[in-house]
Fold:
Amino acid sequence: MSKSRPATVWLQRRLLVGLFIIGIALLAYLGVSLVVAETLTKPYRRPLAASPAAFQLAYENVTFPSTGDRIPLRGWFVPASGSDRVVLIVHGRNSNRTGDDGQHVPHAATLAARGYNALLFDLRGHGESGGVRYTLGAAEQRDVLGAVAYLKNRGFAPERMGFWSHSMGAATVLLASASSPDVRTIVADSSFARLEDLLDRELPRASGLPGFFNPPILFFARTLFGADSRILNPVEVVGGLPPDSLFIIHGEADGLIPVDHARRIASAAGAAVYDLWLVSGARHDRVSEVIPEEYEQRVLAFFDEKLRRGTVE
Structure:
């Protein structure tokens, strides 16, 4: 008895130490995951890289609320005199209304010269808009719908609206099309098809952590910060778009969102696909840099066909 009792005490102590270590490791695992989720859902506020004034464009500074939660969104409205056609330019993650390098502003100039009004605006948490987080398309759909409501209040009809959208912005527009028939005539440049598939690979890269950290990071992002990757799947909604209303563009050298995502969207969209344009050598959302003239010509041809010319009285 005297010998077995110390052994029992020793085993109990070892068990308690083991449980303590496991508890500390679990807390560290969850704590690190929480910090990463909190960090990764905060966008980088990139400064505006250009201005319509640099292209001698008339423009208005505009502010309007997102639909539902009424986040204040800021942007530029570039008018085309006498035209009832308008194109919304929707940027990607960690960008803003001007694009990463200011490329969206010359696109607006091209639109205006072709007889299109243009609306460039900052999604929530980006540029000069309100909000402190992004949700990879979940809440940003309200921003797109807020922009549509703003343009409708200015007298533009939904059938005269086009969407020139990029990366996360493209996925957001595609997702918004499922909740509003006003969202159609879409250029989707570099969209993801299913977010969870993308995060399986990209989240470890972005966080610098092994893949087994993904589940708690995604759990905290979903439950605390509103970024629910499980429901952000444009591939599941594009089949509901009207025929020939979706122009898909993707770079074959895209290292962020593999080109297979574009093919999957096209396959799911079926008759809604106007064109699937895959460009050799182009990186993520950089087709416009590789072949700028052809890029603008093909986008404008799409809008010309789908948003036929008209004038306001």
Observations:
- The first strand starts at residue 60 and ends at 65.
- The first helix runs from residue 4 to 40.
- The chain has a mean pLDDT of 92.
